[in-house]
Design brief:
Chains A, B: It comes from Nocardiopsis lambiniae. Two copies of one chain form a homodimer. By secondary structure, the first copy, chain A, is of the alpha/beta class. Chain A is built from twelve helices and 16 strands. In chain A, 40% of the residues lie in helices and 21% in strands. Chain A starts with 7 loop residues before the first helix and ends in a 13-residue tail after the last helix.
């Protein structure tokens, strides 16, 4: 039976069922077809057909072992096939590209982090670099030979996810750029999303607090954004623009922001602002195109660790501002957990205490509403990792982009 | 067959199916049992049994008409029974109690609005007043004889909805008060929730913008709170404390707030603050216990309409502050629609222009992210209306608190 031969309705049901079986094997492997049938309520013939399909697509495999479960023939055990497919994730940010490939069990196959001046390159040249970086990862020995099932690309700005258009990314200098369309040459599905949203997905799927349904991931780059998960789902908002934490106005007299307004949180607590305050002799006045942000962050952390007063007090001030911004977020959204990502991670020892103090004093609910603030465990690859994790998650939901197979049933 | 005789699992499935049938009749009435079976995928015998149960509970009725649908016997048409049950809603706020009763089709049966000084009364005496007010509505000729299926009570503060405990309501002076338990004497289920949450539910179910899945309802009382709906569901947050818009800090130098901090939005844009600025010769210095807030609001609106500069500029300033607070909300949550409720409605003509201007200048997404700000059509009864609407909605979800009936099947 060809899978594509049914009606649209049947096709959709079958896709959903493929996802159900894949998810069941992910959760229960190793498990027999009979166990899958019992867990899902699908009948055994249907399960056998779906399993054959998923095997043909390289998503599940027989382990070679059997299990006796009650009477009847012993069941051949199934597991996820971690050798056949790969999902890619990429983040483009002000000063770097980060790329990662993972297998079906979300294990990292390879990752790269490369300095890249996206603002100087401009959107067209950046899109070419992005395509080249993804192809380079596909050629890596750990990925070559696998079927790439899709890629997720993270951009620091407002993204219209359904069309893959970057609406407004002031720190990159991009607006209304159809990045998704520029990646059509790759030949597999590419989703473009906001970097903070993908960071939150990464935390939920593979971070140290994986499985926490209400959490916020905060990007710590030149820009500050928040990816908000409520009940395990991304809070996107009516127009897909939720989570613009960096552009909360803390006061109209604050410094000028890349967005053209004054007093935005990221203009005083984004990495560019921190570096200018913490290592004024090294950091350029404003903004930071072409600067080696990673090296400046290293210098800041080094000086703070050595007790340099300028660096320490700059980090503490930024932590206070960040806590004030997070207080607004916690008052409005009440997440149980806020994870600070990106360059905030190495700066955490000096940022976090003042951040937590300001948060506690700004939150109306008793005891900060129970909300914790912790550093992310995913570092600068969080958003790329979330891009790849989202592709794998989409498979579990039955969105199978692989060529349709003819099953044996 | 007695409904209570099955296992817990079967009981739950039956309850869910009762809700499905009730919802289907709500959406498609008048409709036959066969049409319900076709729409739900349930078999006709099951539908007949569920319909008998719902009729025994006074939730659906036969209209007395029939419809020929294909071959076979003509089907007797069903509709919601709008004569047998009632749901109640009540809001307790700083200066009033508002009570409403609705029927199964969400039509208002009766409503009352009475001045009440909850702060002076204290929580215990207030609870007695609440019970008395609900009993008074039950005795109204439009309600008497109906089965009351439940009540929803709105409180301006942090509420632990599952237990019905008011955690913190500074404008009432209550903390950790088990209001839900105090209403057990009523003999029907009572849910206690935050006033803004219930206002948002009212807007979604019966307001002028009903059906808008992403909206925020803002209470305009002495306190300011936000009820946030995303995708048609309340955003409650990890601890149930989301939406504390009134306690966003606009600046550390702002006026002192009832919560003990400085610079909260409601300390400069809540109704108490507006009245002190707008009609300083009439309004008490601070706070407003015992003041006739409604009369002061009338005076403010009267003077503003007459062009009184003090009143007009006080309202414009409050509108600007409100817009600044809403900008934080829109940047973080991106609702498509914000509805200003309570006393903000009569003040709207002078508040709204400066509010919209401040919002537009504070939102990062282009064109305010497409977000509109409009006055609520539900006035001071919004939260009470939402309390009742929530009870009716719970019926549609299969939470049927009526005594179990023995069906004829």
């Amino acid at each position: 039976m060809s899978i594509g031969s049914g009606t649209v309705g049947l096709r959709t049901v079958r896709e959903a069922n493929l996802g159900v079986v894949l998810r069941t094997v992910r959760e229960s492997a190793p498990c027999s077809r009979a166990a899958v049938a019992a867990a899902t309520g699908l009948n055994k013939t249907t399960v056998s057909s779906l399993v054959a399909d998923l095997m043909a697509r390289g998503l599940i495999r027989e382990t070679g072992e059997t299990a006796q479960n009650g009477v009847g023939r012993p069941g051949v055990l199934l597991a996820l096939d971690d050798s056949s497919v790969a999902a890619l994730g990429l983040e483009v940010n002000v000063d770097y590209l980060s790329v990662v490939a993972v297998d079906l069990v979300q294990r990292e196959l390879t990752s790269r982090h490369m300095p890249f001046d996206a603002r100087a390159a401009g959107p067209d040249e950046s899109a070419r670099h992005i395509v080249a970086a993804l192809r380079e990862v596909m050629a890596d020995p750990s990925v070559r030979g696998r079927t790439v099932v899709g890629a997720g690309i993270a951009v620091p700005g407002l993204v219209d996810a359904p069309t893959g258009t970057v609406r407004r990314a002031p720190n990159l200098g991009w607006s209304d750029f159809p990045l998704g369309a520029r990646t059509d040459v790759l030949g597999f599905p590419v989703r473009v999303d906001n970097d903070a949203n993908l960071g939150a997905i990464a935390e939920y799927r593979v971070g140290s607090f994986a499985g926490t349904p209400d959490l916020v991931y905060v990007t710590g780059e030149v820009g500050i954004g928040a990816g908000v998960l409520t009940g395990g789902s991304l809070l996107r908002g009516a127009g897909g623009f939720a989570g613009e934490l960096g552009h909360l106005t803390l006061g109209p007299d604050g410094p000028e922001c890349s967005c053209g307004r004054r007093g935005c949180l990221e203009a005083s607590a984004g990495i560019g602002a921190i570096l200018r305050d913490a290592v004024p002799d090294l950091a350029p006045e404003r903004p930071l195109p072409g600067a080696d942000v990673a090296a400046l962050v290293d210098a800041t952390v080094g000086r703070a660790a050595a007790g340099n007063g300028t660096a320490v007090s700059a980090l503490e001030r930024a932590g206070t501002r960040l806590g004030q911004g997070l207080a607004a977020l916690v008052n409005l959204v009440d997440p149980g957990l806020v994870l600070l990502g990106g360059y905030f991670v190495p700066m955490g020892p000096w940022l976090l205490p003042s951040c937590r103090t300001a948060l506690a004093s700004g939150v109306f609910a008793p005891n900060t509403g129970g909300c914790r603030v912790e550093p992310s465990s995913l570092g600068l690859s969080a958003a790329a990792r979330g891009g790849a994790a989202g592709v794998i998650h989409a498979l579990d939901s039955g969105a199978l982009p692989l060529p349709e197979a003819v099953d044996a049933g």
